[in-house]
Write a structure and sequence with these properties.
The structure holds two protein chains of two kinds.
Chain A: H1 2-25, H2 29-41, H3 44-69, H4 77-94, H5 102-129, H6 133-155, H7 189-206, H8 208-218, H9 220-225, H10 230-246, H11 248-257, H12 268-278, H13 283-306, H14 312-340
Helix pairs in contact in A: 1-2, 1-14, 2-3, 2-13, 3-7, 3-10, 3-11, 3-12, 3-13, 4-5, 4-6, 4-10, 4-11, 4-12, 5-6, 5-10, 5-11, 7-8, 7-13, 8-10, 12-13, 13-14
Chain B: H1 2-8, H2 11-27, E1 35-40, H3 50-65, E2 68-73, H4 79-89, E3 94-98, H5 103-112, E4 117-121, E5 130-135, H6 137-151, E6 156-163, H7 166-182, E7 187-194, H8 203-215, E8 220-224, H9 229-239, E9 242-247, E10 258-264, H10 266-278, E11 285-289, E12 296-298, H11 310-325, H12 333-336
Parallel strand pairs in B: 1-2, 1-3, 3-4, 4-5, 5-11, 6-7, 6-8, 8-9, 9-10
Antiparallel strand pairs in B: 10-12
Classes of the chains: A mainly alpha, B alpha/beta.
Chain lengths: 341, 337
């Protein structure tokens, strides 16, 4: 029961603090709360945009959660998703003529493979060379960003646009968008994300590999004594984490833009950390937390439009306060755990 | 007293007056204020350049015409579309997108809301309810190149561009042509801050590039780099050399060091579009702003009066007249391709 109650309390606290800030800025908190709610759930389009923003957050949240279960901190989801999206777009730009059932599958596989590789590198470095994954994943984010700029601007540049993006992919690559959401780009990536969350739950709690991952995360030395190849498990966990982040590319590239746009992600990879934290690293929790953050992202964008004093920056403050209170809650329980041992 | 006045009016007149008053009150909604929504680029309202200029134009229209103005700044590239749509869904009459990055979003939303009016700066969207506000940047850059070459003592002038895209190449090409017109032997050093939209907002990199250029003998730099240009101005201050501003009049930021600014009157384009739309004279299609209609110009005010000499201005004005008359054709990067 407390497992569910605490994250909810954290959200309420963060929201209260955030509304307090908007109140100081000169807005009625009740008014702000109503706009937030309406902006995120008010119409089928608004709700669609919430789901659109939530979809990549489910993937990155799962990515961080899986690594976390293996005792690893994946800060590299941003780089992994960048390369995943880039790979999907590259396949589409290089072979634009491929027909429908084959094309999206191929591009999707490319996204997963690219993300997996990018996640496996820091996993291998950690397992075999002992260099810390936090440092490596952060640095690989920069490498991914540089690589993406190079490919998008020099190799696959879209000649018809001034925007930094790749050539549009063929029509056969685009996956179905649900018409119900009034034009919001909600695609088959959403059910894919929810299905993936279920698969990750199966993996972590119903398979031997999942058991080994969790064993390594809870006590590496105990796992080694029990005969688990902890190095291999860590590489595998990071590879899975990378592949999950790479899946973001499916929704963005195949389900929305039809090409890779530099800077398309408003830090989905880093928000994924907060999502995993709030979701307690449980797949179901991650889905719920992603929905909340998606709603916040969409809702706060409307605040800018609907209020006099809440600008883009103050919207970010509101989001930050919620993230802060969520992580403070994590810190609190961590300190309590430390106090016990 | 008032009571007395009212009583002194005859009954039929009183009824008529009340009717008129009632009519005025009931007609009020028909005169509801004109609503304008402004979607700014990721650079934001305070870049002191492109977006600031657009915002100022809209604010001026608000003051002059009493319209209702709401502006928003995009948080990510997927937000343009939902912000434009949010304006269109509400009772906004005119929605203006600032910057080429919104081209596709405007195209899509304008098609979904054919009864609403849209405008976009720096991109062409062909739809009957969209006005594309395009600027002839190369004409202005030509004058700036000439001014730089005339002022330079070393015969070396610099160019710091923001993002390396055709739009900025267009500036560079005009600049080079103008400088070569004055001094065929002039050396032009050109650098770009970057290749992503970050390049518009990286003053330290702008400063670094400018320092290198100044130390290599360049004594005038034209910064076409959005907020990154502010770094170029800092370098100018440190090295006591000249810099040239862009889009908005930036002469005031470092008086005596900003030789002039190439004015791109985004404010004027936005203001006139709002004015025409409010007067029900909105027309779609491409509207071009160049030297001829003062949409493009160079600045001269009290802040650069001491450095922009009369001889230089006289020659620049001659060139301007020749471009307008068509005797000089400025090379256009867009048409070269």
């Amino acid at each position: 029961m407390r497992k569910i109650l605490q994250p909810i309390l954290a959200v309420v606290l963060g929201l209260t603090l955030g509304l307090g800030v908007t109140w100081i800025a000169g807005e009625s908190p009740w008014h702000v709360l109503r706009i937030l709610g309406r902006g995120a759930f008010g119409s089928s389009y608004d709700f669609g945009m919430t789901l659109f923003y939530a979809t990549p957050l489910i993937f990155t949240g799962l990515s961080v959660a899986v690594a976390f279960h293996a005792g690893l901190f994946n800060i590299g989801a941003e780089g992994q998703l960048t390369l995943g999206a880039l790979a999907a777009a590259a396949v589409g730009a290089l072979w634009p003529g491929l027909p429908a059932p084959l094309a999206p599958v191929l591009a999707g596989v490319a996204a997963i493979v690219a993300g997996t590789c990018w996640g496996a590198i820091p996993g291998w470095l950690r397992a075999r060379r002992g260099s810390h994954e936090v440092i490596n994943t952060i640095m690989l984010n920069f490498v991914a960003a540089g690589l993406a700029s190079y490919v998008a601007l020099y190799l696959l540049k879209n000649p018809d646009s001034q925007n930094p993006e790749t050539r549009p992919m063929g029509a056969g690559y685009l996956i179905h968008q649900f018409g119900f959401f009034g034009g919001a780009p909600v695609s088959a990536a959403l059910p894919l994300a929810v299905g993936t969350a279920f698969l990750i739950w199966m993996l972590l709690w119903k398979t031997a590999l999942g058991f080994e991952i969790r064993a390594v995360g809870q006590s590496e030395s105990a796992a080694r004594v029990a005969g688990i190849d902890t190095g291999k498990i860590r590489i595998l966990a990071m590879a899975i984490a990378g592949g999950l982040a790479g899946l973001v590319g499916i929704g963005e590239v195949l389900g929305n833009a039809g090409k890779f746009r530099l800077g398309f992600s408003p830090d989905y990879g880093f928000l994924g950390i907060a999502v995993a934290l709030l979701g307690r690293n449980q797949p179901l929790g991650v889905v719920a937390a992603a929905l909340l953050f998606g709603a916040l992202h969409k809702g706060t964008a409307d605040l800018d439009m609907e209020t006099e004093h809440v600008t883009r920056e103050l919207s970010l403050v509101l989001q930050a306060l919620i993230i802060l209170s969520v992580s403070a809650e994590g810190l609190w329980s961590w300190m309590k755990k430390r106090g016990q041992t | 007293m008032q009571r007395f006045l009212w009583d002194s009016i005859k009954q039929p007149v009183r009824v008529a007056l009340l009717c008129v008053a009632g009519l005025v009150v009931s007609l009020q909604p028909a005169f509801a204020e004109f609503k304008v929504g402004l979607v700014l680029d990721r650079g934001g309202k305070d870049d002191k350049s492109f977006n600031s200029s657009a915002y100022e134009g809209a604010t001026e229209a608000k003051k002059k015409l009493g319209i209702f103005l709401k502006y928003v700044e995009a948080t990510d590239d997927n937000a343009y579309e939902s912000q434009l749509r949010a304006f269109a869904q509400r009772d906004f009459d005119l929605i203006i997108g600032i910057g080429f990055a919104q081209k596709e979003a405007i195209k899509k939303i304008a098609a979904q809301f054919p009864q609403k009016h849209f405008a976009i700066v720096d991109a062409q969207v062909d739809a009957p309810n969209v006005r594309s506000l395009m600027f002839e940047e190369h004409e202005g850059a030509y004058l700036i190149g000439a001014i730089a070459a005339m002022t330079s003592k070393t015969g070396k002038i610099g160019f710091v561009g923001g993002m390396d895209i055709p739009l900025i190449r267009r500036f560079a090409m005009g600049y080079e042509a103008g400088a070569k017109k004055i001094n065929p032997q002039v050396t032009i050093v050109a650098n770009y801050v970057g290749v992503t939209s970050e390049a518009w907002n990286n003053p330290p990199k702008g400063k670094e590039l400018a320092m290198t250029q100044y130390d290599g003998g360049v004594d005038v730099i034209f910064a076409a780099a959005g907020a990154s240009g502010l770094g170029v101005f800092d370098a100018a201050e440190e090295r006591k050399k000249f810099a040239i501003g862009v889009d908005a009049n930036q002469d005031w930021t470092k008086p005596g060091l900003i030789l002039t600014s190439m004015l791109k009157r985004v404010d004027e384009a936005v203001r006139s579009t709002i004015e025409e739309a409010q007067a029900a004279k909105f027309t779609g299609g491409v509207k071009r702003f160049g030297l001829a209609n003062k949409g493009i110009d160079y600045s001269f005010d009290q802040y650069n009066a001491s450095v922009l000499t009369e001889a230089v201005r006289k020659r620049a004005d001659e060139l301007k007249a020749e471009i307008i008359a068509g005797t000089i054709t400025v090379p256009d990067y867009y048409k070269k391709q």
